[in-house]
Input
Amino acid sequence: MYMKNNFLMINHNKVENYVLYGGVDKLFLIDFKFSYRDNFCYRLITSRKTSFWIPKKLKNVIVPKVKKYADRKSIKAFDKLFENSEELNNLNCIIICARVFEYFGISIVDYVREKYPDCKIVTYLADVLSSFLVTEDDFNRAFDKVYSFDKSECRKYGFTYCLEPYSYQITEKLFGSDFDVVPQYDVTFIGAAKDRLDDILSVYEKLKVHNLKLDFWIFGVKEENQKYKDEIHYNEYLSFEDFIKHTLNARCTFEALQKNGSSPTTRFSMCMLYKRKLLTNCTELLDSEWSDAMATGNIQVYKDMETIDFKWIKKDCEYDNQKFIERFSTDRMIETIDSTL
Output
């Protein structure tokens, strides 16, 4: 029977993970910085994506030594994480988020399995697989079940779909009176360029032609590819708190999916919860599953830029966001995992 207090989540100790997953009854946030160099080196020399250049004989010598050293430091972190774990006797499932597995590798899975042998151990991917150093085989071998926010990757790799949560109440606590702001911009975009820089800049140019006030922050762009440098913020650090503030300070957020992504990202949940508009190329939102979200008039899905209704961006849009607060809750996530284990 579903009981949310029988689930434990282990995630990276970052503000965004507190905001997204803070509603989980038992949430452990682990620090990465304690042995970043050791674990990162180990990931590099063991990942099939990055270790192809190391001769096999050399790899056979150095991998065990680096792993032993990295594991010794990792176990200290795990012991600290679980030092007050007396209340965890009735766990049914432990969710080790994918970035934690990418960082610590199989050592954290082995540690948890030894400590809680009767628990199901699963993982959750909140980003597309290509953004990780580890492969689908690594995930599938290590965990009892692999969950992902992206439906197309679930079909491709045999993962199980689970909507990414967003704990709306947490942002209310964090921002207080700053939560209710009058937008100063028409459209904002905040994200890494990845494989979509051309798409982002093409939409930027269209928006600019229509005299809209724009607030664009693009990360991971080489200097020679930085068009409109006087207008766009390139490679400037933004905290997650700033990400939220910039989202609140614009009428509309622009979302451009990565080439191999199909499902809506965190920007979708933020817009629905904060009552900000979303301009997106995510055609999955046209499915019946999201008919209630589309009915709010808050979302515009475009298949090519010529179909974008730019006047829509400045139109007012009012709706009750309570159903979306519940839909994006961590309770829904836990229910999904519980029903599919």
Notes: Residues 4-162 form a domain with the Rossmann fold fold (CATH 3.40.50).
